C-alpha cells in the first residue's frame, strides 16, 4: 500500500466521517515516529515537511531518505506532502523528487512575506496544479493567512478566509485541498487565553465547506501546546511562554464541519524535545546523541498515536485497497 495521494486519503476520510493528521517532520527519527504510530494504530497518515526544515545539507537528500523510509511501512497508506511550499519552483522540485502531494502557499509573497493578492495567489497555484495533476500528484492551496511563524523567523498576522473568495479560488485553480484561515496560528505561542468563538471561527469551516463541497478543507496551526510538555521543557533549560493552542475537542469537531486534513507540528515536536532534554539531563556525561534521540522518537510516536485516535483515523488503514501512487517518469516542465 504505502505511498498514496492526498486526494485518495482525504476522499476516504470524508466518506468515513473522520480526519487525517498531517504531522511535520524534520529528521528521519521523526519520520519513523509518525509511521510507527500509524502502524501501531492502523491509521492512514500524512507525513509532511517544509523545505529547508531539516538539519540535512540538502532537501534532496532528506526527501530521498524520507521516501525510502516510507517504503518500509507497506501496510500503511502514507501521503508524503510538502507543507507550505513558498513558490512554484520548490513545489515542482518536490513533485520531481517523488512526493505524492504538495502545498503551494500563495497567500504570502515569498520575498516580502506580505499577503499576496487573490489574483497572484490563483496564478501561482494554478501553475502548480497543472504541473502536479499531469503527474498524478495532489495539491493543497491556502486562502487567508494563518498567523504565527512556520519557520521561527517570520511572523504573519491572521487574515481570515473569505467564503466568496474560496469559491472563486477553487473554481480557477482546481486544488484538491484548501487551507482556510479561521484564526489558528503556527508555532509554540498561539493564544494568551483559552480560545473561544471570538478567536477560533469554526463557523467559517461549515460556511466554506458548503461553497466548495468537492474540495477538502485543511486546518493549519492546530497544535494544542500541552502544558505538561512546556513545563518539562522549561524545567530542563527551555523558556517557552505560557500559551494555549487548539483544544482537542475542537479539532475533533472540525472533522464534522468539513475539515479532513489536520496539521500538527508543534505538539509532536514539543514531545520529542521534552523527552530529549530529560534524557540528556539524566546523563550529564552523555556525548552520543542517539539515546536521547531514541527517547524523543518514542515520545513523539506516543503523542501522534493519541492524536490519531482523536481525529478518528485510527483503525482505518484496513479499509484501503492496495492502490499505490507511483511517481511518473520525468516529464518536461
Task: Describe the protein in words.
The protein is an alpha/beta fold and 333 residues long. The chain contains eleven helices and ten strands. The strands form two sheets. An eight-stranded parallel barrel has the order 1-2-3-4-5-7-9-10, surrounded by nine helices. The longest helix is centred in the C-terminal third of the chain and has 22 residues, at 290-311.
**Class of secondary structure makeup:** alpha/beta
- Give the helices and strands as they follow along the chain: HEHEHEHEHEEHEEHEHHEHH
Biggest sheet layout = 8 strands, parallel, barrel
Strand content bin:
5-15%
Strands side by side in the biggest sheet: 1-2-3-4-5-7-9-10
H/I helix tally: 11
Global geometry: globular
If you compute it from the alpha carbons, what radius of gyration comes out, rounded to the nearest whole angstrom?
19 Å
Number of strands: 10
Uncertain parts: 147-157, 185-191
Helix content: 40-55%
Could you tell me how far the N terminus lies from the C terminus, measured between alpha carbons in angstroms? 29 Å
Overall pLDDT level: 87
